[in-house]
Amino acid sequence: MCKYGLVNKIIPFSCVDGPGNRSAVFFQGCDFACRYCHNPETQKVCESCGVCLKCCPTGALSMENGRVIWDSKLCCGCDSCIQACENHSSPKVRQMTVEDILAEIRSALPFINGITVSGGECTKQHAFLVHLFREIHKQGKTCFVDTNGQLDFRKMPELVSEMDMAMLDVKAWDMELHKKLTGRDNKIVLQNLDYLAEIGKLYEVRTVIVPGWMDEEETVRQVARRIAAYPSVRYKLIKFRPWGVRPPMDVETPSDAYMEKLAEMARTCGVREIVCT
Amino acid sequence: MQKDVEKNIRKILADPQLTYPQRLKELAAAAENTPDPVVLTEEAQWFVDRDIVFDMGEGNAPYRPRYVLPDYDKFMKQGSEFLMLEPPKDIWDAVSNLLILYRHVPSVIGGPVYIGHIDRLLEPFVKDEEEARHAIKIFLTSVDRTIGDSFCHADIGPYDTKAGRIILELSAEMQRPVPNMSLIYNEHTSDDFACKAIETGLVTAKPSFVNDAMYTADWGQNYAIVSCYNALPIGGGGLTLGRLNLKKLADICENREEFWKMLPKAVAAQCEQMDKRDTYILEDAHFLENTFMTAEGLICKEKMVGMFGIVGMAECVNKILHLVKPEERYGHGKEAEEFALEILDKIHEQVTAYKPKYGFFAMHGQVGIATDTGVTPNTRVTVGEEPPLPEHLLFTAKTQKHFAAGIGELFPFEETAKKNPEAVLDIIKGAFKENMRYFSFYSKDSDVVRVTGYLVKRSDIEKYDAGQASLDASTVLGAGASKGLRIFERSVRNV
Fold first, then answer.
1. With 0-12 CB in 10 A as exposed, 13-18 as middle and 19+ as buried, what is B456?
2. In principle, which of A72, A273, B252, B394 could form an S-S bond with A234, CB 3.0–4.6 Å?
3. Residue B426: its chain A contacts at CB < 8 A?
């Protein structure tokens, strides 16, 4: 078990996924279905329906024994398959071992502070992450978890002990609004917020600001109050952006002035470091 | 001959794109070029005639070293008898003395290519920070407006100092291409200071980072980065820079065998030309006897070396090995890499074995000239063919081993890096561990951008192209390189 991870994509260098330069590994599968998800193709596991085969311009996709196979050498990266998928998935997801992942980031290792696992929701594959992190730590690199907190960290003690830090999304404070936005309530998310902060493994909380879809001021205020007691925890406020969102949302990207107003609110609550992006 | 000279001079006299100091310099160059070039053997001349070996157009009668590196630290301690200057007592004396000496430092450009480790020189005089900031701003403004050439280079670091921080803050604020700037980076450089330098660099394309461990191993601690990214001994300098164009050498060779036969001949030709030109500077022009800097101990013969430059490795390897497939070409394929490293080993062996009359020769990765087309600087991967960044960094580091007299590659980053300078620092730290010598970077949205080694303002190039004169002589070169080397099309790194 957990010999393989389901990986959507690996970015060798990223400067937006935690401290310093990091390789980011995006895992497949997520139990939230956020309305504004920027990479909805990471949500579900491929059902091999074959819809994508017809739209591939280079013949990189084929059906073998009832399964869709992707040939990376033929792929031109046009993402037509992802656009065509009705299942919020991708035929380009790979089953990878820890060794496969290490081989893929080998040339990046000298230049990174560590890796960040993201998704999808990476903690759904927490047993695999434990193995991956052990190997990454042997290379002298750090391991960060980018999570929406849908699984209870207290029930994943091995992951908690092996990871360096977590970055947690709090998508909305109000439970009903959270449900409307993501399809699930936020009870466990908020428990994770407290737990990760208490054990000193919370690096950053993130909230995407989507006016009209959430209680953004209340969310920022409440999160800020919780994390103010932990001065090293950063709060990252992210503007909604329309890229990748399917179907498109009729929401305007919040202005810098509004973001600054929210940041000021968090600052007043006692948060030391606030990043707007 | 006479007619041509007169025509050329008349053109310089009235050229609307030249400022007065630029006009003087052009006239001096015209005068210098009236004698015939230094006489070479027939074999050496054969390579010169084919532009395979090139004297960088330094002039037919070289009367000063290409790059002079006065010992400014000594000058600050002792003042100057010739210039009638006492050692400085405060920050105003300090900047004034330096600016005066700069007027007397010769080089192939109009002014000095090295203006000192300026934070180290000024730090003892930083008492009141606001006063120091005012003095340093006047200092930097004066350097920018009067030296007017981004081959003029200041060094800072490795230590975090008040002067160093003021210099970085003013550089970000002023956004001017002159002076070019390098941060000497080693284990004494704090992450905080390094990140401040990176934030500055992402605004104004300087400073670049210097792998001090490698250069200290080559030169000891008394070296400086000057001009583009040349490394040379302080208290001496680089007499001449010769340039071996590997692309043009490859053009006359059909296969590996022919290339291996021609390479040592071309290297020998360039060594001969450099040796004779170096000798001319010291024996015919009596350079050292004719400057007060020698008498005052600011420069000496023992610290003068020759720079053996190369360009066009990428084209050379692709041509000789007939590489067409992207995954096999220079910067990607294993065979290309091995061949390139073998060429570099061979050149290095021959160049270090050569015993010139004065000093010795050190290898330099030449950055190209404005009129180059289809010749990639030093050992770089051709613009447009860069592999993914991690592979690019690893490959580049491997090719830089022998270049004690300096080599550099540059990496444009996306805006997002500005919010996470630590990410760029991680890349630099990794690159230096892999033995990269020098790391330049800029943000693709900056007005000040690095052309190949020197800096220009995009807005100045646009004005120059529209026919206006430019204060900065490097703009003229940048205007050429933006077309010939497609510098604005360099692959931007999204980290």
1. buried
2. A273
3. 20-21, 111-113
